[in-house]
Amino acid sequence: MSTHVAENGGNGSEVVKLTKKDFVSDQEVRWCPGCGDYAILAQVQKVMPELGLKRENIVFVSGIGCSSRFPYYMNTYGFHSIHGRAPAIATGIKTANPELSVWVITGDGDALSIGGNHLIHAIRRNLDINIILFNNRIYGLTKGQYSPTSEFGKKTKSTPFGVIDYPLNPLSVALAAEATFVARSVDTHVAHLQMVVERAMRHKGVSFVEVYQNCNIFNDGAFDMFTDRAVKDDKMIQIEHGKPLVYGKEHNRGIRLHDMHLEAVELGNGISESDLIVHNEKSPDSYLAYMFARMEYPDYPVPIGVFRDVEKRTYESLLEEQIQGAVAKMGAGSLEKLINSGDTWVID
Amino acid sequence: MESTTILNNVEDRHIEELDTVTIRFAGDSGDGMQLTGTQFTNTSAVIGNDISTLPDFPAEIRAPAGSLPGVSGFQLNFSSQDIRTPGDQPNVLVAMNPAALKVNLADLEGGGILIVNTDAFNEGNLKKAGYESNPLDDGNLLQNYRVFKIPISTANRAALREEVNIPMKEIDRCKNFWALGLMYWLYDRPMAPTLTWIETRFKKTPEVGKANSTALRAGFAYAEAAEIFTTHYRVKRAVIAPGKYRKITGNEATALGCVAASQLAGKPLYYASYPITPASDILHELAARRNFGVKTFQAEDEIAAVCAAIGASFAGSLGVTGTSGPGLALKAEAIGLAVMTELPLVVIDVQRGGPSTGLPTKTEQADLLQAMFGRNGECPVAIVAPATPGDCFHMAIEAFRIATRHMIPVIYLSDGYLANGAEPWRLPDIDALPDFKVKNKTESNGIFHPYERNPDTLARPWALPGTPELEHRIGGIEKQDTTGNVSYDPENHMHMVLTRAEKVALIADDIPDVEIFGESSGRVLVVGWGSTYGSITSAVEEVQNRGMSVSSVHLRYLNPLPKSFGDILGRFDRILVPELNLGQLAMLMRARFLVPAISFPKVKGKPFKISELVAKIEEVYQD
Ligand code: SF4
Fold it and tell me: Phi and psi dihedrals of B46, rounded to 5?
């Protein structure tokens, strides 16, 4: 949703200051204790008041899966729909009433497997909606089958001999579908997650956010090798607009472009910050974002942050413009006239 | 009118009056037969004939030229009487090539008029049509029909070559207008409506427009001058109810009904659809109605279309999706979601021959059971079915009225025959249309319960996002009644399943009761639904005129059924149910009312002929 809404709370009314509590619904949360979903829920509830939106102007839409229970826990309007279809339902909601702040909560199976088609098409239309994909690389609600983001070779209940299909990279999919805002964060990185959610919200156009989410029951520690506090500084990199890609506990490592490839390097020995690649999230083409999205563990530090943030007309604003244009040109529709159009004749 | 002046010059030519004529234009799909038929229809309608049409075209856009699968036909029936069908059997066949002759000749009535374009009967085309010798040389043909062999292509070229400056290929494409001109003379139609149409249509390419109008006039003049026709025919204006009329197809009327419903409900229309034959024209019509605030959404697939419509309904629009049978199958799960979330939704199914891809351009009524039961769980929806092209307007409005008043999905079963068929449509009095202004819930009395029910209809409140204090969550998981909280309680589930069924049953209080055509009791009752109305009613009328005790009931509301329908069944000795499927309504009637309904099925991609229904009624009557 756009920033102008943040100023007036939507529907043209004045600013209201709500607190996190206002966004907590009366429903009992039913995720497994320790699930990463709790952290994400808490951060979203916390960010909502910052955005200055009124509760009644917010709609959370989800599909099926553990994460898709999310709307029940938000004290806003909510629609828990069917598997994979949340982007399509959200499209209907947003285009029917562009004033609403519409959020899609989805998972790796919901968004990238059964709902892959809806995801890419909702993204390419650039509706002003916010899609948060909880990626836990497993099917949780159906008790532990591999998902389209599970690693090659992974043993799960449905792949006792190991996964033999290659995983999808959610950010690559979003970028290929021409997403105008693409970001990634981690369930446990509270401040970073808040920042990303808030920026997604403020972006006018489709926002796609991947959140690494731990499923402590069926895929515990899936991201620990790089998200764990002890290693994260050396195994992850926070990308920021206009800044060179530096990481490491001692800020002593970086990423440079070498031979059309990204390369992780140690600073020093003739390599300085000025040799490193500088992030530009506003770049009109998405090559840079795509290259960063392809940085995967263990070959690279795993990037988090905003990969892309560009402006493009939204679907719903173009639709409204067509309607206004048609009314201006043809006049507001008259049923009487429409029924009487074409060749008519009178029988007396 | 133009034709009148010309006619005055040829008073020596004999004019014969006819009540009803059925013409079939047939040619290659590239020959423009649909356009020719449509123009003849429009002109006939404008001069006051009653009309009914049956376009019949291949699923392929351009099957190989001259081939049998590439034949495209357009049948129209025009009359000075009140007619309801496109006619059982053509009296006139215009065949533009050998393939068209081969495919259609068997349908032509004995002694009927056959007009052929001899230029197309060359060796190559004859071979493609599978003729070993030229059928035009066959003595039997000349004996059985009144054959007019006309070199249409040559005559058309001769007329146009000096007049217009366009390539020969373009000139040849005008030959359908030449043939149309000839038919206008033969059936005493004015050329003016078509000339006006050509002028508007070819505004940007006036030379092509001139070519077409020249061809039309040349065909007319040829028929008049060549004296190959000793007689020409006149079909007087029909005596039909006074009023203002226009010609309308089912798809046009459906789209108009959607726009009207939006105005009557005071809610914006949101039409989400994925292109599919034969429903796409509804999308095209509505996409042009932006000035009515109509939002159309061409979705990425059938599922997205229904889901977007559901989302739009949740947000306060009149959500509607349109499709055909294969698409309805894909939408099943989402329709279940709309049943569960109790949102208003209209699903238009323009049925076609199935299963699977089936016969995309042909008609069938075989989705009734899919509409009734084609979803997981106990998942009832309301079902309505228009009876004629014009009735599509009224039943589309009904679909939205029921959907919004009862907070329920409504499936609207049109079919290929209604969708593309046309009839004169008496323009409705807008003030007489049902007024069903929708009032959304806007106030909470402290706490809002999304499943608090209206005692009369059991409908839940329609509270829209954007309304303060009414924030609530809905979804596909079973909900506790009243509060709408997620509930796995066994008693609650049983209660909710029964409530959803009861909601549908209660709609019976809100729809018109059945009308019986004929006596209210007797020997045979013919029961039909949907597009078979015209042929059934005409057949029943015919046997009634012979003094037989036969009545009919035509259902436009299929779920729930009108209240007294069951009682009526008991007042007849025999119940005959003709359907363009293998007996789906008959099966429902047998199950529900324990009556020995006799099914009369037809699944040939074509509507019933009046004569085949008359024969069946007679058989059942004697039994
Ligand atoms: S199964 Fe996994 S993802 Fe689902 S609630 Fe439990 S911990 Fe969370």
Answer: -65, -35
Using a CB-CB cut-off of 8 Å, the residues of chain B touching A95 are 270, 295, 297, 308, 312
pTM: 0.93
Q: Which two tokens stand for residue A139?
A: 């099917």
Ligand 1 atom nearest A134 alpha carbon:
3
Q: Which chain A residues are closer than 8 Å to B272 by Cβ?
A: 92
Mutual orientation of helices B302-314 and A86-96 as an angle, nearest 10°? 50
In this predicted model, what pLDDT tens digit does every residue of B330-348 receive, in sequence order? 999 999 999 999 999 999 9
Which residues of chain A make contact with B246, given a CB cutoff of 8 A? 340-345
Q: Which of B110, B49, B47, B105 is nearest to B73 (CA)?
A: B105
- Domains contained in chain A, CATH given: 3-222+313-336 (3.40.50.970)
Q: Give the position, in ligand 1's atom list, of the atom nearest the Cα of A36.
A: 8
Atom 2 of ligand 1 has which residue's CA nearest to it? A215
Are the Cβ atoms of B292 and A333 closer than 8 angstroms? Answer: yes
Spatial separation of the C-alpha atoms in residues B34 and B38, rounded to whole Å = 6
The answer, yes or no, to whether any atom of ligand 1 lies below 6 A from the CB of A32, is: yes
Strand partners, B529: B555
Tokens of A195: 């920042």
Tell me the one-letter amino acid at A281.
Answer: E
Q: How far apart are CA A341 and CA A345, in angstroms?
A: 11
Helix H or strand E segment including B34: helix B33-46
Q: Which residue in B has a C-alpha nearest to residue A329's C-alpha?
A: B291
pLDDT tens-digit map of B148-203 = 999 999 999 999 999 999 999 999 999 999 999 999 999 999 999 999 999 999 99
- C-alpha to C-alpha distance for A88 and A92, rounded to whole angstroms: 7
Query: What ipTM score was computed for the predicted complex, to two decimals?
Result: 0.95
Q: Do B430 and A335 touch (CB under 8 A)?
A: yes
What domains appear along chain B, each with residue ranges and CATH number? 2-235 (3.40.920.10), 246-428 (3.40.50.970), 516-622 (3.40.50.920)
Chosen for mutation from A22, A85, A340 (greatest number of chain B CBs closer than 10 Å) is A85
Residues B174, B312: Cα–Cα separation, whole Å: 46
Q: Which of B346, B462, B324, B323 is nearest to B397 (CA)?
A: B346
Q: How far is CA B283 from CA A324, B287, B321, in A?
A: 20, 6, 9
Interface test with A, best of B79, B248, B471 (most A CBs within 10 A): B471
A319 contacts in chain B (CB < 8 Å): 295
Q: Do A81 and B270 touch (CB under 8 A)?
A: no
User: Distance between CA atoms of A111 and A179, rounded to whole angstroms?
Assistant: 15
Bridge partners for B71 per DSSP: B28
Per-residue b/e over B13-31, b at no fewer than 16 CB within 10 Å? eeeeeeebbbbbbbbbbbb
Q: How would you classify the pairing of strands B20-28 and B295-298?
A: unpaired
Listing DSSP states for A82-134 in one string gives STT-HHHHHHHHHHH-TTSEEEEEEEHHIIIIITHHHHHHHHHHT-SEEEEEE
Question: Residue B405 — pLDDT band, cuts 50, 70, 90?
Answer: very high
At B457, the amino acid letter reads T
Rg, Å, chain A Cα set:
23
- Phi, psi of B498, deg, nearest 5: -65, -35
Short-list B9, B12, B14, B18, CA closest to B44: B18
Neighbours of A22 (CB within 10 A): 15
Using the beta-carbon criterion (under 8 Å), do B245 and A346 form an inter-chain contact?
yes
Q: Which of A64, A136, A146, A187 to mutate to test the pocket of ligand 1 (most atoms within 8 A of CB)?
A: A136
Q: Which residues pair with B516 in a beta bridge?
A: B553
Average pLDDT in the B255-259 region?
98
Residue A80 in contact with partner chain B when CB distance is under 8 A: yes
* A54 in B contact zone (CB under 8 Å): yes
